[in-house]
Amino acid sequence: MGRARPVGALLLTHGAGGHRDQPALVAIEDELAPLPVRRMNFPYRDLGPKRPPDRAPKLIASIREQAADLCAERHIRPGRLALGGRSMGGRMCSMAVADGLPAAALILIAYPLHPPGKPDTLRIEHLPQLEVPCLFVSGTRDPFGTPDELEAATAVIPGPVTHHRVEGKGHDLKGSDQAVAAVIHEWIRSL
Question: What's the pTM?
Answer without folding.
Answer: 0.95
